[in-house]
Automatic annotation (TrEMBL):
Residues that span the membrane, as ranges: 6-27
Gene3D superfamilies recorded: 1.10.287.130, Histidine kinase-like ATPase, C-terminal domain, PAS domain
Coiled-coil residue windows: 155-182
PANTHER family in UniProt: HISTIDINE KINASE 1, TWO-COMPONENT HISTIDINE KINASE
Lineage start: Bacteria, Pseudomonadati, Pseudomonadota, Alphaproteobacteria, Sphingomonadales
UniProt keyword terms in alphabetical order: Coiled coil, Kinase, Membrane, Phosphoprotein, Transferase, Transmembrane, Transmembrane helix, Two-component regulatory system
A Pfam family reported for this protein in Swiss-Prot or TrEMBL: HisKA
Histidine kinase domain location: 566-782
EC number(s) per entry: 2.7.13.3
Domain of life: Bacteria
Protein name from the UniProt record: histidine kinase
MF term (GO), any: phosphorelay sensor kinase activity
Catalytic activity: ATP + protein L-histidine = ADP + protein N-phospho-L-histidine
Length: 782
């Protein structure tokens, strides 16, 4: 075998390398083309799906007449398959109406030759669908030069809706013309305003009402039908209706044909179309209504003044009117009738009150009475009630379908004689059993009636009284019974004043046996006079005893006040001496004291100070109750005073583990009063809070005020005071009783209230058990 030369081997190696490189490049190019093909196929599939779901079917018309069409086109045309040539599509059996096919052929030819776009609606022969064809020249990527692209839409539903809208527009146009004719023919003014509230349409009645030449004249000049009411022009009322988006009615005056008329004007908002309005002459109607109301009111007033019971029912059988005698006669309540009950319900209420005749079949009886509403003639019947009341019932059907019932009580007429005899017997028995002495004198001064008490008091014989003596003769015979016989003239004058002058007089007279009588002469409606006498001997004696007792109590109170005052001053002298010696011993005048002795002396000083304060409180309380407490009237700076009192007690509060706070405002200001007394009041209230609060409590003094009053508020978060004890803590006697029983009770709170009241102020307690206490003081500036 012949060996290759080096050159040949090199050439062969180069050829093999080039062949290998070409093979690698071919493999890589094939893979890249495969990927591009896969991506292109995916895009083609997506575009195919997009075209299949599009609302239009594409059709490509080639220059030689061939068609590329979607399968949906065959379904829309009622064919089994899509046409392959344009001639098939436009043929007589191609599925399109012949006229539409000819026009479509011309449009496609124009698009192929001149490049014109078009839109054409065509209807299928074998289908009820209406197709919309939009055409345009096809691009070179779709067809050769001279091709066309058609998009076919199914416009059946859209066209039906268009036809429906056209029909509605025609109907609305006809309705608008009819409405315009109706507005023009209306006998009352009507108008229309645009959204800017300017008049845009008026009818002939409007033109006549404002005495204008024509509608154009009214609109041009903006002539309004009605006047401004209360400064509000018609445009403002229309704007209000538009803003509220609801119909607005109002009654306004207007001048029509030279006469003032009352018009009912209605503004109707029409949304963006503006405002429509009309006006109806209400003058005659209002006059008729006023006259009707006047007649009805007069009738009601007349029926209400009748003594007979009256009830009127409306056409719907509900109660419309009743008078007071009707309610009283049948025992009905006002609230039960105010709800306008029906006729049957009113009868039920009468029966519940046992004010109807008894019947075995009440529903049937009630049904017969309900037929009164339908009766052509008035009806009348008599009712005998369970209590013996005899009623005459008159039923009058009314023209409007209602019913008028009149109930006349004829019991008195039926039983007049018996009732009169009974009344006389009852009156006689009543007179004879009265505790008072009663006599009735006629206008001529003669005694007409009397009771046994009258005869016994005056000691007159039955024979004398039976002669009906005159008051002069009667007093002449009985004046010996009087402690002062001349008082008989007083009785005589009183009877004369009651019978002649018709004046009521009163007085008292004493009898010879010591009895005292109060008497009165009272005019009676029939011209007679009633003379009554009442034995008040015991009352006068009790009154005298009470008067004597009151004088004794007042004298005792004065003695008590004087005693407390003197004792207070008497106690001060030895107390001052004890305090003075104790202070000297504490200061070392008697020599140096041992430690226990100094504690004893300090206890003596503390007790004497407290005793002195208690004596001052008792004296002040006594003087306050007696009204003799001296009060100065000088300017008092409440802020400085309150601060000083709080600082004085701050150490004691700290020793007890309490927080004593102060909160003052500049509005607290100055009042005119007694600085010592006001400070004493604050001390009592703060000490009371320190006494009753426990460790950890917080006590606050707050001050503010107004232009005419200053206010001090002392509050704490202590145990509080039960409601039932709040009033008693201001009673000195109750506090004293509590102190005797060993309870913590002093005179501080009662004295504090009296000091505040002495300045013309008020002290109020607000407390609740377990929630603390607040005391509010208000002092006048003056």
């Amino acid at each position: 075998m012949t060996a290759l030369s080096p050159v040949a081997a090199m050439i062969l190696g180069i050829v093999l390398a080039l062949w290998l490189g070409a093979a690698i490049w071919a493999v890589m190019s094939g893979q890249r083309m495969r990927r591009d093909g896969t991506q292109s196929q995916g895009k083609i599939d997506r575009l195919t799906m997009l075209l299949a779901s599009a609302p239009a079917a594409p059709v490509i018309v080639h220059p030689d007449g061939r068609l590329e069409a979607a399968d949906r086109l065959a379904k829309w045309l009622g064919r089994t398959r899509a046409p392959n040539f344009l001639s098939e599509l436009t043929a007589e059996d191609g599925g399109i109406e012949p006229e539409d096919a000819a026009a479509l052929s011309q449009d496609i030819a124009a698009a192929q030759r001149a490049g014109k776009s078009f839109a054409r609606a065509v209807r299928g022969v074998n289908s009820t669908r209406l197709l919309l064809v939009r055409g345009a020249p096809a691009g070179p990527e779709l067809a050769e030069s001279g091709g066309a692209l058609l998009w076919v839409f199914d416009a059946t539903d859209s066209q039906a809706e268009i036809q429906s809208l056209r029909s509605q527009v025609a109907q609305l146009r006809e309705a608008l013309e009819a409405l315009a004719g109706l507005v023009e023919a209306a006998p009352f003014p009507m108008w229309h305003r645009t959204s800017d509230l300017r008049l845009s349409l008026v009818n002939s009645a409007y033109v006549r009402a404002v005495d204008a030449e024509d509608a154009a004249d009214v609109i041009t000049q903006g002539i309004e039908l009605v006047e401004s009411v209360g400064g509000v022009p018609p445009e403002a009322a229309a704007a209000d209706a538009m803003a509220r988006d609801q119909l607005v009615e109002r009654m306004v005056p207007a001048t029509i044909d030279g006469e003032r008329r009352m018009m009912r004007v209605v503004d109707v908002p029409l949304g963006e179309a503006g405002i429509a309005g009309y006006a109806v002459d209400q003058h005659e109607l209002e006059q008729a209504r006023v006259e009707g109301r006047r007649i009805e009111a007069a009738q009601r007033d007349l029926l209400d003044r009748l003594s007979a019971g009256v009830a009127r029912f409306g056409p719907d059988r509900t109660l419309r009117f009743w008078n007071q005698p009707f309610m009283s006669l049948f025992g009905l309540r006002q609230e039960a009738l105010a709800d306008a009950p029906v006729f049957e319900r009113v009868l039920d209420q009468m029966r519940d009150a046992r004010r109807l005749p008894e019947h075995r079949d009440f529903p049937a009886w009630r049904s017969e009475r309900r037929d009164w509403f339908l009766s052509p003639e008035p009806l009348e019947e008599n009712w005998l009630l369970q209590d013996g009341t005899h009623l005459r019932v008159y039923a009058q059907p009314l023209p409007d379908g209602g019913l008028l019932l009149i109930f006349e009580d004829r019991t008195e007429q039926v039983q007049l004689s018996s009732a009169r005899d009974t009344l006389l017997r009852v009156r006689t028995a009543t007179f004879d059993n009265l505790f008072e002495s009663i006599g009735v004198f006629a206008a001529d001064g003669r005694l007409q009636m009397w009771n046994s008490r009258f005869r016994m008091i005056w000691g007159a014989s039955e024979e004398l009284l039976a002669t009906h003596p005159r008051i002069d003769d009667l007093m002449r015979d009985v004046q010996s019974c009087l402690a002062k016989p001349e008082q008989g003239n007083l009785v005589r004058e009183l009877v004369r004043a009651a019978t002649v002058e018709r004046k009521q007089r009163m007085g008292h007279v004493g009898f010879a046996d010591g009895r005292i009588f109060e008497f009165a002469a009272i005019p009676l409606p029939d011209g007679n006079a009633l003379f009554t006498m009442l034995d008040v001997t015991d009352s006068r004696r009790v009154e005298q005893v009470l008067r004597d007792r009151n004088e004794a109590l007042e004298q005792a109170d004065k003695i008590k006040t004087a005693f407390v005052t003197n004792m207070s001053y008497e106690l001060r002298t030895p107390l001052t001496t004890i305090a003075g010696f104790a202070e000297m011993m504490s200061a070392g005048y008697a020599g140096e004291l041992p430690e226990p002795a100094r504690d004893y002396v300090a206890g003596i000083l503390q007790s004497t100070g407290r005793l002195s304060m208690l004596i001052d409180n008792v004296l002040d309380l006594t003087q306050s109750e007696a009204g003799t407490l001296p009060i100065e009237r000088l300017p008092v700076d409440l802020g400085a005073l309150a601060s000083a009192r709080v600082e004085r007690l701050r150490g004691e509060a700290a020793s007890k583990g309490m927080d004593l706070a102060l909160d003052l405002t500049p509005a607290m200001g100055v009042v005119r009063g007694d600085e010592r007394r006001i400070g004493q009041c604050i001390d009592h209230l703060l000490e009371n809070a320190l006494t009753y609060c426990s460790r950890g409590a917080r006590i606050l003094l707050h001050g503010d005020g107004t232009a005419d009053r200053a206010r001090i508020v002392i509050s704490d978060n202590g145990p509080g005071i039960p409601t039932e004890r709040q009033q008693a803590i201001f009673e000195p006697l109750v506090r004293a009783e509590q102190a005797r029983n060993g309870a913590k009770a002093g005179m501080g709170l009662p004295l504090a209230r009296q000091l505040v009241q002495a300045h013309g102020g008020t002290l109020e307690l607000v407390s609740k058990k377990g929630q603390g206490t607040m005391i509010l003081i208000e002092l006048p500036r003056g």
